[in-house]
Amino acid sequence: MCVKECVCVDASLSVVGALERVMRRCVGPHGGSVLFTRDSGGTFITRQGQQILTALNLDHPMARMVLECVCTHYLLTADGSKTFIILLSTLLQRIRDVTHTHRKTCLDSMAAARQLAHQLVEFSRVELDDVLVRSVFPHASSLFRSQGGAVERGALQRLISGYVAGRLGSGQAELLTGLLCDLYLKTTCGASTVQPIQFLHSQFSLLHTLVPGLSIGQSLVLEGLVLSRDWSVWKEKEEPVRALMLCESMGMVASGVSVCAHQDWAQRAEFMLEQVWERLMSLQVHVLLSTVRQPQCVLQWAELNDTAVVECVDPTELDLIWQISGAHAVTHQALGRIVTVTFCKRLQVGGCRYAHVGLHPAAPVHAHTLLLCAPTPGLLQQCVCVCEGALTMLQRVCQPLLRQTLPPHQTRNSDVCQTPVLNHSQNTSPVLDHSQNSSPVLDHSQNSSPVLKHSQNTPPVPAQSDSGGPVVCAVLPVGGMFELLLHDALSHASYHGYTESCRLLAEALLSVPRTLGLHKPHLQTLPRSLCNQRQQSAVGSGGSEFRSSLVCVESVSCKQQLVVSVLECAVRMLCVSAVLHTAVTYSP
Fold first, then answer.
1. Which region ranges are annotated with the description Disordered (predicted)?
2. How many Å apart are CA 473 and CA 145, to the nearest integer?
3. Quick one: fold of 148-224+367-397?
């Protein structure tokens, strides 16, 4: 049996509106959390938009379509799930109000709504880059210093703090922000460049260790790698020693040996093992890192020869050690690969013991491990998600510098998004009729909050400095500043063929500062004051106006991608005219 459900703008708005009512309560650093109960009776508390959406039981196909769009967006930018829903809801409401006013039938309203949505997407692809260059980027500041892509701890802390504050409590967010800053700065070997960001993002699963049952304040950053196993044979090594990485057993396998031949086999096995150990001693190997369990005879030989052994190591951990330290193969009997470790320690924390090894710094990274503690497993997993998201966001922000510093083959094969720098000349810019004395006019309508999004079709553009050069990694203060500036640009300029659609987008953008409580009269002149402050700052200051204050910042390019992604999702929803509900029947 098949049931057809006609989908109009009201139907799409009702689906998104239901999600928006859940998200609105959790927006911003002062937002609340959502309590979920599982079928097993356990509870789950979170304020992260992605976790809230995925935990909901969404039956309607349109709701699952929205969830798919949000998940795709989150995988690329790790931010903006709550604002995505709120801004989408506000935009659909504005489209509904316009189409219902001028159209009488549902079909006419849907056709007009689709036309407006397609115009908005076309505007984002054709004009949005130039609008941002003219009206938003002049008020932005660079997160990094102009030369060498170096970043100061204060600037990095403001960017990470703005990300973490909306996902954890204030005390937990402050501690986690400091830990992430320490992890980045220690990994960079003191140079504070952007190259280690790719390393931290891709290897974070191996660069953190979870310790439940302790307070989050006991978390710290340790030099070297903390392996997921304890030492089978423990011999502390404070000085640099050689370690052998094994992927197979060192002893002979006794399968298929008869009882009569066992004595002869044991003698041969002991003789071969003795030869192996003589070879290892000649190579000055005093640590064995094995991915498999070794026979008891191997452990006994290690105990007699003052050699530390750790068994059943994750192969990916050995691969990381190999990549960082540049291990070389042992040609004799294919023993394995040898690497030099700076120390070997036994780490005991939270009732668990781990093998802790140090590695020589390999430019441009010096491996460190984040020891992450939390009283409950649920909070621990939330902290991990926040850390992973913050690193993804950092990689997104630093894409221009990463493209400049990474070799071409790494740039092609890495998961860094390819976003070419656009050439914004005077000939390609739209003709704007913009009032110099205009300021954002705030009214009272729906709300929204900050978000990040990536679109393959609309790459971000770099900010322009006062001297005309590019200001990479442009940032603005959090709290709706980007939306206020873009609203001002869309409201007081004329774009041929996009007048009505730009007005709708401008009205929808105001939902972000309203949700965050920025609809106060004294904040209406804030964009102009920031512009005057930037003009007075030294050329090439690289964001000194933001480093000198305690304001948190967010990426301009990420906010641009949010706008584009919401528009594309709106088009996708409005192109659906009917939903077919099929019921599967089973014959006895």
1. 427-467
2. 10
3. GROEL; domain 2 (3.30.260)
